[in-house]
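Handoff note, outgoing to incoming analyst
You'll be picking up this chain. Sequence as last confirmed:
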Amino acid sequence: SWGFDRISYSGLDISQRFVETSKKKFPDNKYYCLDILVDPLGLPKFDYVVLNGVFTQKRELSFDEMFDFMKRVLLKLKSHANKGIAFNVMADPVDWKKDGSFHLPFHLLAEFLVSNFSRYFTFRQDYGLYEYTTYLYHAPVQQNQETKWNVVWATNFEDLAKTWEDHESAIPFGLDAVTYGCASGRPFGGRSVSSL
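Most recent structure output, in case you need it:
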């Protein structure tokens, strides 16, 4: 047992079709179909908000337009995350860039986060992809001495499951998480930490 029953998972997507697809895969999860930029009041508060793949592709947008979109989404989600937000973007610098990908330099993101959220964040680019994940917290991350456990991010479901198996007794009770974009087919589209 990995303690999945201790985490309440919800999914969010702007696409009703994606929400319905995810509901078929994971019918016990709660879902919200809304545009966070238009109707943020339709979304309750969560301990953590995870956005997986939402900011990796700019498609036809310019860099500035995509950066503005990302900022607006994160600012809207700020009041919906009690403890923190995690999201990924394409890394910069890299040895090649694909047209349509959103490659965001660390310094630009850091300046935005410090100015608008907090100085408590971590960039992780050690998992072998041409992207990095940002873990943004409202307060300093302090490891609980009793449980010696903190929220983790894994690059696939097996890593997440193994981490939770290793720390099963320390998973906090009543943890809430929402992932923006629930039907993307990412590994976290599972039972507890959401992913679209």
